[in-house]
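URGENT: need a sanity check before tomorrow's submission.

F., can you look over the MBL fold metallo-hydrolase record below? I want to be sure the sequence and structure line up before it goes out.
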Amino acid sequence: MTPVDLVKYVKTNEARIYGFDETTRARKTRAVNRVLMGTYLKITFEEGDYYFAITAGPDGWIRKSDTTDQMGLKVFYLDVGQGDGSLLEVGPFRILIDGGPGANMKNYLTHWQYTYLLRVNQKVHIDAIYISHFDSDHYSGLIDVLENVNFTFGTVYHNGIGKFVGKDRPDKYNTTLGETRKEGGKEFLKTCFNTLDDMLALQEEGFLQDEFTRFVFALKNARSQQRLQAVKRLRRGDIIPDTVVDGKPFQIQVLGPVCTDLDDFPYFKDESHTVNGHSLVLKITFGTCTFLFGGDLNTDSEDYLLDTYKDQPGILEVDVAKSCHHGASEFTVPFMAAVNPYATVISSGDNETYSHPRADAIGCAGRYSKGERPLVFSTELARSVSKEKIIFGMINLRCNGESIYMAQMKEANTPSDIWDSYLVK
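Structure tokens as predicted:
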């Protein structure tokens, strides 16, 4: 048995960790833990074909053939209640896509995912935050994260549509999203912003909604404390980042919002349909695998996107899709058919009036899938509830650039049998 000091990652999904004798550290034959592909391993000893690994859950011996030097892509679809919030880790990058409505995102980051950094007084750096749109169930939970001085940030990306008060706003702001214009019998939203300075200029007018104002101040304070580098609006055609990780292409391509030649937005029915319909639509590629995050798209915007990309067949198709608008009924069958994933993740919560996810959304997510056994995951169903507490759920995705695995914890489990796990591709 030779002491070593190595960092490895799990190569084989649900790799077995074998127990050991507390006195001699000799390997036992019984597995005491199973760990997902991409899980961090601190290697302290090696013997023959095995490493001794310190990892999540019980430590122990793991076969060397079950380890690798490359982490791959990890996506954590968090149970943030009625809302959306996801964490991505790939290579050196940490990325948030939305943050939910409450404290779940902050609690997960500070009490679980990054405690190994925080307990030794290291800062947690988030390279990018993508906010699909400024509905509270997608961004409010990020305010506490931005205000936490133990976190630093690269760029906060957004769709450029803010929220104004419902009453006593200037006449020029004829909607709660700002000013519109009409042309050729159609209506367009003119008011938008790009940088943090643009947001502050709108805030100084004094007519932004309270929650959005809190968010703007959180950005301002983070920048003044030199914890935030930039704020930037995204639109169709942007690709950020566009790089290589572990020898494989990694990019986030912006498919929406699709703006006009005047850089404003088609107005869909009302304020709600417009801000939802112009959510950031992100297509993520890692190696040969693809993933879609579509915010709160609705029927109007899905038709608009299908028309926009009618000459680019296949551009919307991915391997795994985050269901738009929490599994609401307001979707189009042609859009679902165009996305055509192997697996769909629905993020929704209890105690809300929307009854998300709707039965037709669940059914169509399965029907319009390219898998023989379609996979539909729900953060709400992954949750465990007892009289004493709520254990919020999470859907785990792991990808090495060629294969994709997805898993959720079993409600009644032991470390050696913890995962309900599936090969997606």
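My own read: The CA atoms of residues 101 and 204 lie 25 Å apart. The chain has a mean pLDDT of 93. If you see anything odd, call me.
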